[in-house]
Amino acid sequence: MITVNGIHVTFGRGTPLEKHALRGVDLTIPEGQFVTVIGSNGAGKSTFLGALAGDVIAETGSIAIDGVDVTRWATPKRASLVARVFQDPMVGSCTALTIEENMALAAARGRRRGLGFALRGDRRRHFRDRIAELGLGLENRLHDRMGLLSGGQRQAVSLLMATLAGSKILLLDEHTAALDPGTAEFVLGLTRRIVEENRLTTLMVTHSMRQALDYGDRTVMLHEGRIVLDVSGEQRAGLDVPHLLALFAKQRGGEDITDDSLLIG
Amino acid sequence: MSEIAFFGAVEIGLVYALVALGVYLSFRVLDFPDLTVDGSFPLGAAVCATLLVAGVNPWIASLVAALAGSLAGLVTATLNVRFKILHLLASILTMIALFSVNLRVMGRPNVALLMQDTVLTPFYGLGLADHVVRPLVVLVVVVAVVLLLARFLNSEFGLAMRATGVNARMARAQGVETDFHTYTGMALSNGLCALAGALFAQTNGFADVTTGIGTIVVGLAAVIVGETVLPARAMLWALVGCVVGSILYRLAVQVALSADAIGLQASDLNLVTAVLVAVALILPRMRLKAASKKREAAR
Ligand SMILES: Nc1ncnc2c1ncn2[C@@H]1O[C@H](COP(=O)(O)OP(=O)(O)OP(=O)(O)O)[C@@H](O)[C@H]1O
Ligand SMILES: [Mg+2]
């Protein structure tokens, strides 16, 4: 359960580059709901996810996760509640560490890290079993550096890492944008499976209208730092991509969007 | 090279191995280019020598020296983490300040340890020659430090520290308090360098404010030599590499200095080291360039 109340975020306040990126976002997401987030470049999607994760602190308004007010919590503290996968596979993992070291790091998310060995025999076996589930043959490469994996493999492992420690919400920021269509499909399928198995409350940012409607149970559209569309249930089931595009165009003041990246899919 | 010169080189190599381990922690593990070392090494020597002259137990004096070094590391880390001063500049500020601090600690530019007991005293007169005893005692300390450090870096806490250096953004997303790990790592790193200073003072019988100059470059040289001769990824072997690198570096210097044909003097050491580190930093890049040129030519 996520409750967001009127949050505002401004970057570079008082400078010529001042940017009011979030202008009063209200959103309540019940436990276990899978929300897809769309919006044009610069709409504030990443900023919104960053505000949920603690990377950016909201100036006004409040954020509660499972009833706990986390508005002032920094990223590491929120990590016990929030798991995330980034758009850039390089950002979401430690390329210089091995796959199992990355997994050990993620498995301790939200726990105190002590002086016990990070990689004990039973943990190694557990990691091996979990990574085998991906069906990518990575169980024999646990000692390889993360940087040796392809982007798709790394995103798959990042998703798996997000589930190694319990968390309340999962944030996915265009996590398939850097992948080829086939791999993106695979990672999305994996996403769906992991979200269902772990009953995670999920927000997924995407630029594909198709994905936005095909995945999850609710779609919200951000525009200039505000939520301008919020559909779920039957209303959403009745929507198809052209509809959504039309709604989108209307929000943008009817301007022509044929050159917009949103037309993908 | 005479036997005494050989053991002397090994001894000084082992003392500086502690510096190399500290530099490995800051430069490699935390990715924090830290020049505080040039101040924390003589700080360790100064604190230890002053305490020994005051009659303090040598092991306690060495420990206090290490703690003083940790404090210096914390100052640099605070300037960087809390006040956002660029790491290099933050560490230079601490280093410069330490020069004055070290003079204050000793009350004069140098302190001689002539009659004072040191950590080595109990081991002299056990039948081994003094020039063999010294490297042996330092070796025991170094081995203990390597084992403890490897154990630490393989722990959950240590892994989080390594992640802090590799990808702080990801580490924070995984719940790692990256600031805290930076403080801890910097304290540990400079504590080791100060411990090296304390051993230096005890094996050489003096502490001098000028001994710190170039320490960072020597430490870095040892790390680089170690990585070249022992390119390992397992933590323990990477640390052993630092120690081996430090000893090899000293032996190479000893050979260079004792070869009359080259005509080098002891005072040329810093120049030689700087050139060596520069070459070691340039070589991999040249090799990359050469490789990509070859590939282009093949196309
Ligand atoms: N750290 C920052 N400093 C200054 N401005 C920023 C920062 N982060 C984002 N912005 C600005 O805030 C606005 C919203 O950015 P955000 O990254 O949230 O957009 P987005 O919806 O994720 O876009 P995209 O689809 O391109 O990823 C943009 O105008 C961006 O330039
Ligand atoms: Mg974005």
Automatic annotation (TrEMBL), chain A:
It is found in: Cell membrane. The keyword Membrane applies. Keywords: ATP-binding, Cell membrane, Membrane, Nucleotide-binding, Transport. Residues 4-249 form the ABC transporter domain. It is a peripheral membrane protein. Belongs to the ABC transporter superfamily. This is ABC transporter ATP-binding protein.
UniProtKB/TrEMBL annotation, chain B:
It is found in: Cell membrane. InterPro entries: ABC_transp_permease. Keywords: Cell membrane, Membrane, Transmembrane, Transmembrane helix. It is a multi-pass membrane protein. Pfam families: BPD_transp_2 (PF02653). The chain crosses the membrane at residues 6-27, 34-53, 86-105, 132-153, 180-200, 206-225, 237-257, 269-286. This is ABC transporter permease. It comes from Azospirillum isscasi. The lineage of its organism: Bacteria, Pseudomonadati, Pseudomonadota, Alphaproteobacteria, Rhodospirillales.
